[in-house]
Amino acid sequence: MGLRRARGRPAQGGQAARLGDRRHQEGHGRRGLGGGDPRGAVTASPTPDDLEAVGAQLGRAARGVHAVAHRCPCALPDVVATEPRLPDGTPFPTTFYLTCPRAASRIGSLEGSGLMKEMEQRLRDDPELAAAYAGAHARYLEAREALGHVAEIDGISAGGMPDRVKCLHVLAAQSLAQGRGVNPLGDEVLDLLGEWWAPGPCVEPGA
């Protein structure tokens, strides 16, 4: 049995246990796997159920997934750590990839509101914020390097870092994966999202 997109239905009892490894869920909860490592490294391999869920979330087969970097309160993955080189050989700089379609949709609305331009202006005006954002860039690179060195993307992070804001999905994914206090702009995005998980899992068992 596969997975299909949910339609905002509240979570059903026992559903989280069917979709993922219960021991893994209890071990990490909403905390990103990279939150306790100064490099932000992630090491836990995804389960087959995790990969199935991610494929349903993305609407395509998951590629190059190294680990589940963060789980939603519904217990499904919402951020995965991706190998820096995909199986077909393509360099892939987006280490922390947001998979939850509900969160992604809300972030898309934020991007359409002009928030990225506002954030870039604040980076120009606030040296302290700019320094913290540059630090998030460094943490991102450290996490990716821990997964493997790819010369073609050496020094390149994602989302516009270290001095631009080009993708709020990337920034939010980093805040989820590495924990709050790493990327100040990613933290702001999470604050604006609200409880995107409240309607229940974004994908559910189905034909």
From TrEMBL:
<feature type="region of interest" description="Disordered">
    <location>
        <begin position="1"/>
        <end position="50"/>
    </location>
</feature>
<feature type="compositionally biased region" description="Low complexity">
    <location>
        <begin position="9"/>
        <end position="18"/>
    </location>
</feature>
<dbReference type="InterPro" id="IPR007511">
    <property type="entry name" value="DUF501"/>
</dbReference>
<protein>
    <submittedName>
        <fullName>DUF501 domain-containing protein</fullName>
    </submittedName>
</protein>
<dbReference type="Pfam" id="PF04417">
    <property type="entry name" value="DUF501"/>
</dbReference>
<feature type="compositionally biased region" description="Basic and acidic residues">
    <location>
        <begin position="19"/>
        <end position="29"/>
    </location>
</feature>
